[in-house]
Amino acid sequence: MARHNQQQFEQQQIQQHQVQNKEYDNEQQTLDIYKKALTFNVIAKYDPLISQLMYLSSYCVVYKFDETENDWAKLDYQGPIAIYSRHYQDEYLLQQQQQPQSQQTRPKHSVSEIISNPASAHYSNGLIILNRIQKMLELRLS
Known about the structure:
- The protein has a single domain, classed as Roll (PH-domain like).
- It is built from four helices and three strands; from the N terminus they run H-E-E-H-H-E-H.
- The protein has helices at about 1-45, 90-100, 110-115, 135-140, and strands spanning about 50-65, 70-85, 125-130.
- Strands 1-2-3 form a three-stranded antiparallel β-sheet.
- It is elongated, with a radius of gyration of 25 Å.
- It starts with a helix and ends with a helix.
């Protein structure tokens, strides 16, 4: 009888643990969806042509290789990073479709051209680092 009660108790504990795990998984999924939606909205303020988040990481640090020191130097860019797809249309798409595969080339655009004309969409993907370091430095200095 005692052994049967012990088995029932263990079964109840296992079931309760499974329910708690399922609730935790649901909470994590909800949090993940919220985080992605919030990140999407923040990126949309910088790039209104965003169409879908492809990859999201909560933290990254940017380094630059210093050839004189032959070493990596940490830059003042760190925070969440996102890779996303963009809505884009370009005149070259129509031209490319009309040209043979061997003659297709991607036109070059200067950075100033892209920045000065944000409504034009020359790229199908984007990468953004939501830089936190500058804000942290401002808080420390004040």
